[in-house]
Every structure is written in C-alpha cells, then in structure tokens.
Amino acid sequence: MAASETVLRVPLGPLSPSCYLASFFANSTPSLSFKPASRKRRGLRCTSSYESGNSFHSPNSGLKGKQLQSSTRCKCQRNDVEESIRSTLLPSDGLSSELKRDLDEMPLPVNGSLSSNGNAQSGGPKSIEDEAWDLLRQSIVYYCGSPIGTIAANDPNSTSVLNYDQVFIRDFIPSGIAFLLKGEYDIVRNFILYTLQLQSWEKTMDCHSPGQGLMPASFKVKTVPLDGDDSMTEEVLDPDFGEAAIGRVAPVDSGLWWIILLRAYGKCTGDLTVQERVDVQTGIKMILKLCLADGFDMFPTLLVTDGSCMIDRRMGIHGHPLEIQALFYSALVCAREMLTPEDGSADLIRALNNRLVALSFHIREYYWLDLKKINEIYRYQTEEYSYDAVNKFNIYPDQIPSWLVDFMPNRGGYLIGNLQPAHMDFRFFSLGNLWSIVSSLATNDQSHAILDFVEAKWAELVADMPFKICYPAMEGEEWRIITGSDPKNTPWSYHNGGAWPTLLWQLTVASIKMGRPEIAEKAVELAERRIAIDKWPEYYDTKRARFIGKQARLYQTWSIAGYLVAKLLLANPSAAKFLISEEDSDLTNAFSCMISANPRRTRGRKKAQQPFIV
Ligand code: GLC
Predict the structure, then answer these.
(1) Which site among 82, 379, 437, 489 is 20 to 30 Å from 507 CA-CA?
(2) Gap from CA of 312 to ligand 1 centroid (Å)
C-alpha cells in the first residue's frame, strides 16, 4: 500500500440505502475538480459533476489551486459502499462452487469443440471462454459507480493479498483490449482518463520526487470516512508510483502501455475525441518528455533500473532491457500518430523522430542474435579504439554462454535481453521479442526469424504451458548474486524462467501480424487443456511448466484476459490491426542509410557516410 497517502477522492453523500451513481456515469465522463486534502492525507479531492470537457487534466495549470465544483453526491452508507465494492471483487461462494462443478464436469477440450465467439454452447457445460468472461467481469473495479479497471487477481483463497487487489496499469492492458474487442468501450475510456489524472500527481519517496510524466504502477479505490464527518464516506483513488511497491521499483512501462492502449482505443472505437483532448495530448507529451529527456547515456535505448517492467524484481535487467525498448519504440510510434501538430510541439516531434531512427537502428543491429552473429562475436577482436570499431561495446567472446552454442537453431534468431558496455545478456525475453514484432521494431526478416526460433524451441519456450517469460533460468551462484538470493525467483519459477499464460495475447498479435496464426492457435490449444482447471494461475513453474507456480495467484486477471484476447483475435484476425504498427517508409529509408554506413558492414570498404533526413 502507498506509504504516502496521495489520493484522488470522491466524496460520497449522506446515508442512503444504496449507491446510485452508476446510471449517472453511464453516459458521461465525470469532470473532476480538485482541492488540497486534509492535514491527514496529502492529495487532491475530486467531485463528480455533469460537466464534461477538458478540465480533466491540466498538469501545468496549478491543479492544486482549483476548488471543488458543484457536485452530485453519491449517497452511500459506508457499509453499502464497502459491500458493493466487495461484491464486485470477490466471487460469492455460490459462484465458486458452481465454477468448480462446471470444471469438474468439463471434458478436456478437443480442438474446436469450445466456443470461439464467447457464447455458451446451449445446454452444455460453460465454455472456457464464457467462464473467462464471467471471471473478467468479476474483477472489474468501480469508482463512483463507473468501471475503471480490473484488479490484478481475484483469488478467494489467497492468504496474503499484498497489492494484487489493485488495478495495475500493465495488467489492465489485456483486459482493456478484451473489452475493446467485445465492444465495451466505457471501461477503457474511464481507465485512460482516470489514470491520466494520477499522472500529474505529486509523489515522493523519502522526499524525492520522480519525473512529472510518470504513470503509477497501480492504483486502488479506497472507501474512507469523509473528513470531518464520520457518518459519511468518500471514495479515493490511491496510486502507487513504486513508493510502496516491493523493492520500490519504478514503473517505467506504465506510461508506455498507456499510450499504446490510447491508440488502440482510438483505432478500435473510431472515437478520436479522447486522444485529441487537450489534457490527453498534454499527458502524452509529459510521458514523451520524461523518456526523451537528455541524460548521460550514450545509447538511444532507455536507461532504467532493474524491475521497471513486467519483471518487477531484481533479475539482472537493469540498463537497457529489451522489454522497455520495445514498449518505448511502440509508444513513440503510437504517439507520433496521435499528436496533433501545433507550434509548441515541433521540437518534441523532431526529437521523437530522431529517437525512433536511432533506436530501431541500435536494436536491429546490436541486439540481433543468430548463429551467424554468434560466430561473429566468437571471433571478435577486443579493445578496439576509434570510430570504425566492429566490436563497439567491447564484448569479450568468453561471454558467450555454453548453453547458447547448442541452443541456437540453424534457422531463426532473436533480440538479446540487454546490451551494455562489455556485456550482452544473451537470455531470450519473450515480451520484448514479441512486442518488437508487433511494433515493427524488428525488421520483417527478423520478425519471421523470431517466430522461427519460437517454433524451433517450442519444447523449451512453451512445453506444457505458454509462455516462458525468459529463457534460460539463472541457477546457482549466478542466481544468488543476480537476484540477491530471491526465494520467489528460484530457477524455473516466476520471473526466472516461469511460464506466464498472459503472454498468449502478445504471441497471438505477433503471429497474426506475420501471417502465422497457427503458432498462436497451437499455444492456445495447449493452454486450454489446463488453464481453467488450474484456476487461471498467474504463472507456472519448472522447465516444462508442469506445476502451478509455487507462489502463483489463482484467478489472475491478466491470465484470463490474455487468453480471451488470444481467442478473440484468432476468431477475427483483422482486429489485430488495432495493436500492430506497420513499418514506416521514412524510417526504412533512414535505417538503410545508417546500415550502409555501419563499420560492421563496411570495414575494409571505403565508403563515405551518407546523410539522412527524417
Ligand atoms: C507481479 C508481476 C507484475 C504484475 C503484478 C500484478 O508483480 O511481476 O508484472 O504487474 O504481479 O499482477
């Protein structure tokens, strides 16, 4: 839970038998106004009113000075509110046993025997998809009666909830996409606009404030007594920017995912008014400014600390991890599409374009690994000084791990996990590779090669349950030093080589993009054999993903949503275009100019560097 109580609040009115805000919010986005909260909690207070418009988010205009606007109060008795929230979050006993009975009765699915359109087969047991939809809906979190997100896990038997009762930004992405594909747009719109409110929040950890554009890792809706009147309650949105998270990790990926979802919302609904709002445009720019700020770094990749993405614990991914680079690239491409041209943003757009070119070149050239490249590294000269060095990062060939030599198939390749001076992280990280395909960070050939690699290494990367978060696991001394002896990240568990069903959706988008949906179909079919029976675990353990993860939550929302998105997209592959970015021809031209000027390709040949213009 958040250490500093920075909150977004909605007062709930005097005693009344029920909360009746839902219908009020159904057709209008509440406009929020703010005033500093009480001495007990720092933060802003908001009320809901019938006004709509652009006062939603105005980071540079002194939000804290704004006063409460006229309000329509939610008349809830404290117990009613708590009860109504609880009932939206926890499956009733009846449902659990019903689910259990359904599962017990359910035959092992045979390919094609289950509905792929989300509808129950009449008379028969509930389909896996229907069950998934029920569970996804039960995970919805409401704020002032409006759906605004889904909690991370809804495991009724879990003894320690930690922060799994919160709405995680990254976890909501597959939920949001499932709702978009189903034509249920309100929850996504609300999520986008409410999380935008949290972005401009004042946040500190031990007196230090992170950058202004930061999006929270997660948030929670709390019902608290109204200041000065204990007979009344109010709802508050309580964000966690990492200041309360285990390890105090920075949620670098949150803002990037937010931009990606915003673009998907516009593409899917055709409603561009959200992305065109002044406050939303400001939000995009704040994220970009934070990411594009000058620093000490030599590389165009984003420099981050360990645990700043889906892998949110120490796993040796500090520096320039692929996952962040793929999301960064994707967010830049999406933002470029959405930014409305205006005089003030010319510099930002120029910086964005330059970064896109440099980033794609850097990743495609230096992160790419296949048999040929391993052989090149194996024969690297080291300690090369000067501009035409081939081994630019001074990689010592002894770094090539023994597992890799036999592991790399003749056909196929992948983008490595990280690159730093004298260090290549040769591990395969799934999300980064899959999203490099989806966003066209990888070239067309590389994208096919990544899928070739996945097919060739199916037994290792998928085995009994899709999909390993990374490969291979760290063991022994390496595990001890790099994870800090983390008992949750033991070899082939959790982030250290565990299998995460949520990754199904990214695999599906990537394989549809490359015209190879059969890869995703195979993975979905495999998942369907166990996932519902196993109660939708967060992750699986062991080399072959045979066990439900040691500390895995059950009814993990993004496992459920990831499965649903995969099914919906396989049933309607053209919908994947809401998520895909095709390669831009300006970028391709710039990229080929840079490629031909690279010493790795031209050493020995005398060729003048060609200028390029974006
Ligand atoms: C774990 C995962 C993280 C996820 C969170 C909530 O911490 O590592 O990626 O967002 O759980 O599900």
Answers:
(1) 489
(2) 7
Q: Is 431 exposed, middle or buried (0-12, 13-18, 19+ CB in 10 A)?
A: buried
299, 305, 306, 307 alpha-carbon torsion, rounded to 10° = -110
Q: Which H or E run includes 428?
A: strand 423-429
Question: What is the β-pairing status of strands 146-150 and 218-226?
Answer: unpaired
Distance CA 170, CA 500 (A): 14
To test ligand 1's pocket by mutation, which of 168, 169, 313, 488 has the most ligand atoms within 8 angstroms of CB? 168
292: tokens are: 């594009």
C-beta atoms surrounding 541 within 10 Å: 25
Low-confidence ranges of the chain (pLDDT < 50): 1-6, 10-121, 604-614
The residue contributing the CA closest to ligand 1 atom 12 is 152
What tokens appear for 91 in the block?
């499956």
Q: How far is CA 182 from CA 20, 113, 118, 178, 364, in A?
A: 26, 21, 9, 6, 35
Q: Is 168 in the pocket of ligand 1 (CB under 6 A)?
A: yes
Provide the β-strand partners of residue 234.
Answer: 11, 224
Q: Which residues are CB-contacts of 93 (< 8 A; sequence separation ≥ 6)?
A: none
Greatest Cα-to-Cα distance within the chain, rounded to the nearest angstrom: 82
* CB contact at 8 A, 503 and 483: no
* Whether the CB of 80 sits within 6 Å of ligand 1: no
Which ligand 1 atom sits closest to the C-alpha of 168?
10
- What does the alpha-carbon distance between residue 558 and residue 502 come to, in Å, rounded to a whole number? 5
Nearest to 19 by CA among 167, 219, 223: 223
Would strands 413-420 and 423-429 be described as parallel, antiparallel, or unpaired?
antiparallel
**Distance between CA atoms of 332 and 351, rounded to whole angstroms?**
10
| Beta pairing partners, 14 | none
Report the alpha-carbon distance of residue 160 to residue 164 in Å, rounded.
9
Identify the pLDDT of residue 200: 65
pTM for the model: 0.82
Distance 339 CA to ligand 1 centre (A): 30
Residue 79 exposed, middle or buried by CB count within 10 Å (0-12, 13-18, 19+): exposed
Collapsing DSSP to helix, strand or coil, 89 comes out as: helix
**Burial class, 573, CB count within 10 angstroms (exposed 0-12 / middle 13-18 / buried 19+):** middle
Q: In the block, which residue shows the tokens 């404290």?
A: 78
What is the C-alpha to C-alpha distance for residues 224 and 366, in angstroms, rounded to an integer?
Answer: 52
Contact of 537 with 498, CB cutoff 8 Å? no
CB contact set of 419 (below 8 Å; sequence gap of 6+): 299, 301, 319, 320, 366, 367, 393, 425
Instruction: Please tell me the distance between residue 262's alpha carbon and the centre of ligand 1 in angstroms.
Output: 21
pLDDT tens-digit readout, 307-360:
999 999 999 999 999 999 999 999 999 999 999 988 788 999 999 999 999 999
